[in-house]
Amino acid sequence: MYDALTTRYTFACPSRGETSVPLSSFRRLERLEGTGHPVVYRVWFDCPCGQEHPGLVAHDDLDWAPLGFHAGPFLNLLTARIEEAGAEFGDASCRRIEAGEWPWSFFCYPEGRPRPVFPSSFFLLAPGGREARLGLAVRCPACEAMSLNLVSHEHVDLPFHNDAEIGVVEHVFAGDALLTMEQFHAELYSASFDARRLLLDDVA
Ligand SMILES: [Zn+2]
Ligand SMILES: [Zn+2]
Fold first, then answer.
1. How far is the CA of 5 from the centre of ligand 1 (A)?
2. DSSP H stretches of helix in the chain
3. How far is the CA of 4 from the centre of ligand 2 (A)?
4. What is the pTM assigned to this prediction?
5. Ligand 1 ion: residues within 5 Å (CB)
């Protein structure tokens, strides 16, 4: 499902049979009602075939697999042996988190501060207006308010890659309002973005 070595998710594609895309190709994520063990997310992603398709991703694959906890076997070119990547990647991730680094982060506009986050809190993504950036709608895990950030693709695709500066839409969204894709696009293309420094030292 998720390949930690290529940082891509594999899905079914009606025209190609199978396709693999990075997290930044996801367009919409929603928690599938009635799932709990594990929680499953329904996602829609932009496929290289040019269409948008639905797919299912388990919570583990969304939040933990990118940290390497299920990387699986790989060929170690130094020892020429098949080794288990999971343990090594997982260890490295644990050490970085313990050292205060966060795999993903965003800027919570209502709170006026950067916050650590997991991909399961992302719910809309779209190519942004400027410099091939990515618009990202996040539901804050701390205050539950919505924020729109403008980030690089690497910011979402690569754990521990946090943009030094991200765009923030200066708009407080009504508490439980769920943005439609149309509203999201309108915000992305019309809103004034304020550049905020995403200094993770600020994350308590
Ligand atoms: Zn396709
Ligand atoms: Zn918040």
1. 22
2. 59-63, 85-98, 153-157, 181-190
3. 29
4. 0.85
5. 13, 47, 49, 51
